[in-house]
Amino acid sequence: MDVKTICVVGAGLMGQQIALLSALSGFKTYCADTSSEALEKAGKFADGWMSKQKAKGRLTDEQVDTAGRNLLFADNLEEAAKDADMVIEAAVENLAVKRGIFAQLDRIAPPHAILATNSSYLVSSKIADATVRPDKVLNMHFFNPALIMKTVEVVQGPHVSDETVETVIAVARAFGKQPAKVNKEIYGFLCNRIFSALTKEACYLLDMGIASVEDIDTAVKGAFGHPMGPFELLDMTGIDLEYNLGMERFRETGVLSDRPSPGLVERFGRGDYGRKTGRGFYEYGEK
Ligand SMILES: NC(=O)c1ccc[n+]([C@@H]2O[C@H](COP(=O)([O-])OP(=O)(O)OC[C@H]3O[C@@H](n4cnc5c(N)ncnc54)[C@H](O)[C@@H]3O)[C@@H](O)[C@H]2O)c1
């Protein structure tokens, strides 16, 4: 399928970047949000990001002008999705909200349009039945910062057609990304699962007194060439987020090893969430 027009739903942290990426990659792009404040911020973000890239010699005047013409903001979904060949939804991580958006999109977007969600954890089979085109509903998972990070996970749930997956992979490549095809739906897809396995083991080793926070981080960075150690990363992404995700997963699976580690629970209980509170696995002083 030939994708020319893309609609991005949600102009928050991820949506604003995905919309700009799409416009810079030559697609006519509509970015929709229910909040006019978010749309205004997204417009400023796009202008600011492109002028910085231009100043560094990474974008030409022509590229900036073309992307500026390609990128349109809309506060109503009707206008944003009515001509879309593909929609990428990046609204809040809430199943009821996403199902509502997909039901609306199903009514508005042309019948051939693919409806993708950038959800971090909600598999598309929980959303696809809100539409009458489940074969065209799938996960297309970007990583933050979406303008920079190369990986995009494209997940083929049991209801998704091969043609849909091929088209989304082609769009991801046109965005300059390296798509990873995930053949089956699984909680956390690939990268969040692998990240979680690494951090879980690091927490276990720490709880057992096998090595210190600093030594585990230094060892992982030095041995695998990771730019950050698991504890530095947990402090950055938030111990509260990791705790909530672990508990949610445990509630879903009932598997004891899915529970957050004792050291993580202890820090969560003290309100030591990482950088944002000034203390997590490391001390950061004032928040
Ligand atoms: N933040 C990350 O690092 C990250 C990484 C990968 C994937 N994701 C996923 O991307 C999605 C968006 O995350 P985010 O961090 O950009 O969130 P965010 O809170 O920054 O932005 C969400 C935006 O959605 C808008 N919104 C809410 N309801 C809407 C509706 N009905 N219609 C249109 N817009 C609506 C909000 O006004 C807000 O601007 C989530 O599903 C999240 O799981 C986030």
Compact overview of the structure:
The protein is α/β, with parallel strands linked by helices and 287 residues long. It has 11 helices and 8 strands. It is globular and about 60 Å long.
Tell me about this structure.
The protein has 287 residues and is an alpha/beta fold. It folds into two domains: 5-182, NAD(P)-binding Rossmann-like Domain (Rossmann fold, 3-Layer(aba) Sandwich); 193-277, Orthogonal Bundle (N-(1-d-carboxylethyl)-l-norvaline Dehydrogenase, domain 2). It is built from eleven helices and eight strands. The chain has helices at 13-24, 36-55, 61-70, 77-81, 95-108, 162-174, 191-207, 213-224, 230-237, 239-253, 262-270; strands at 5-9, 28-32, 71-74, 86-89, 114-117, 137-142, 151-155, 178-182. An eight-stranded mixed sheet has the order 3-2-1-4-5-6-7-8, sandwiched between helices. Helix 1 packs across helix 2 (36-55) and helix 10 (239-253) packs across helix 11. The radius of gyration is 20 Å and the shape is globular. Nicotinamide-adenine-dinucleotide (NAD) binds next to helix 1 and helix 5.
Share of β-strand residues: 5-15%
Number of helices: 11
Shape: globular
CATH topology of the largest domain: Rossmann fold
Q: Cα-atom Rg, whole angstroms?
A: 20 Å
- SSE-based structural type: alpha/beta
Helical content, roughly?
40-55%
Order of helices and strands: EHEHHEHEHEEEHEHHHHH
Would you tell me the overall average pLDDT?
Answer: 95
The appropriate CATH architecture of the largest domain is 3-Layer(aba) Sandwich
| Strand order, sheet with most strands | 3-2-1-4-5-6-7-8
- Total count of domains: 2
